[in-house]
Fold Hydroxymethylglutaryl-CoA lyase.
Amino acid sequence: MIKLIECPRDAMQGRPDFIDTAIKAAYIDQLMRVGFDTIDFGSFVSPKAIPQMRDTAEVLSLLDMFKSKSKLLAIVANTRGAEDALHFEEIDFLGFPLSVSETFQQRNTNKSIEEALRAVEEIQNKCEVAGKTLVTYLSMGFGNPYGDPYSPELIADFVGKLDQLDIKIISFADTIGSAKPDLIKSLFEINANAYPEIEFGVHLHTHPDDLEPKINAAVEAGCMRFDGALKGFGGCPMAKDDLVGNVATENLIKILEKKGYDLGLDKNNLNEAMKLANVVFS
């Protein structure tokens, strides 16, 4: 079964003007009625680093959890953020951005890769105790603009380390929009065959014209977990100097439905969410 992960957090986090807390909550509430598997709704990170997300706990308190079967995911960048997130029983998943690029790991979380791997282990242990699931994003998973080493073998090495920590969900993140269909397909095939107990997903940042061949490549390789953001808003504010847009969820839906997948979405609520997105991101 295809899992769609809708990412309003990723859409919002790089915007310079603060989005009112009540507006955020209303938007996420609407998204939760659509039928997405998971909503990546916020993050427990330094407000100095990502000021847009400083109200995540307050947003959570305003959500109507009884109208939705969607699960909630919050991004954390360190053990302290994980501890903050784990206080909330409404949160099902914690997400940690682990980079295969030393430069980007420092830029994104102010850690070395070695320090980040220790944080993953600590957070994984805390998640297991709390009955939560840690999703590890392998950022720069399809290429590196900083001159750091990159290869499919390096990705496989990272996956092996995460498997040793008993990580069950890994999402390959194309942080800067550099993924090519052949590489997407080979990374999924190699790692999914080697680690069948791990759920692999893809979090792409891409230009709309390049999307369909990338999604087709992932599906053909067996990927069943896809991240997106309505209208393609957002991107990583810590990557390079320009934001590369997220996958527009509505385009992702069209591609997957064209391939014959029934995604089980409430299209009326999806249309309402798209209307609201125009207001939130105007």
Summary: The beta strands are 3-6, 38-44, 71-76, 93-99, 133-139, 169-174, 199-204, 225-228. The longest helix spans residues 113-130.
